[in-house]
Model the fold of this input.
Amino acid sequence: MTEGGRVAPADRSRESRAAAPLEPQRPEGIPAVWWAVGLILLLMPVAASNFWLFQVFGWSFCLGIIALSLMFLAGYGGMVSLIQMTVAALAGYVVAILGSSGVQEISVGLPWWLYLPLAILIAAAFATLVGALAVRTEGIYTIMITLAIASAFFYFTRQNYAIFNGYNGFNRVVPPMLFGVDWRQPTAFYYLTLFWAAACYLAVVYVSRSPFGLALQGIRDNPRRMAAMGFNVTAHRIAAYCFAGVIAAIGGILLVWQNQQVAPFTAGIGAVIDILIIAVIGGIRRPIGAFIGAFLFVLLSIYSPDVLSAFGLSNERFKLIVGLGFLAIVFFSPDGALGLWERWRAARRKAVDPLTGRAREGAPP
Done:
């Protein structure tokens, strides 16, 4: 203000800015690429064969859900657990024992609305118990204790015939008939696994952005500081194991329905390591990486025997191709396939001249 009550130009401009209504901020919507991917997945049965729907995509969604539970623990909690496939197999065993299977001497035959929640509850309780033991260790010790429990579960189910039917396990474990639909048919099973994959993905994204998820990430980065701020570090980590156990149980039930059986090899050491490979291949820092890694793993597992046979090698060594693919991705990108994609996009952005919008000379294509 100047003498006489006149408004100085600078003050006038400030007043005009203050009086002008604020422009509403548009919320960030879902990127167009996600809408495109969702539409493609929904319309996939129109173009894909039954083999791709059931064996490739169905298997990828099942393994992706289980790997997603590992990604949640490792990516947001900093806890690399090798117990997730065991939790998934336990849920499958409970479904076979309490539901119906080809082993009628052991299966109880309860209705689906009873044995499915019990399977998830028992698997989550087992994961919580393992978490209560594992969170008291760090680093390589967490990996070793979860691997030891996974090995103990494998040998226990292999030698126990009264409950787990020993080495043979259970066969003819199929999903219940609901709404008159056979959910093991390729198209129906595809949509079933797609629905639960999307639900688990959204659940992980929501929890990661909730106060619990943010606190868990703070504990991952600096547990001492979070403890000094009043957060119960141990309780948060155990709760993370419980939540991851629920996700792994859902994936395990779907996997058992796809294979139509559950046996000790479902939770064998090889299967346990496969889940870790899937999570690392896709990228352990983002939830979508679990499904990308599962899809790549399934493609390598299905088609690598044909590649070996073409070169005159034994197709029984298809794990060699999977291992080489794993080493190649980790060597070039510690963040997995998502890391490779982000590095390529960053290189493309640097290669474009911000003034002209054209590619610079010598830029990668």
About this structure: Residues 55-285+294-310 form one domain. The radius of gyration is 25 Å.
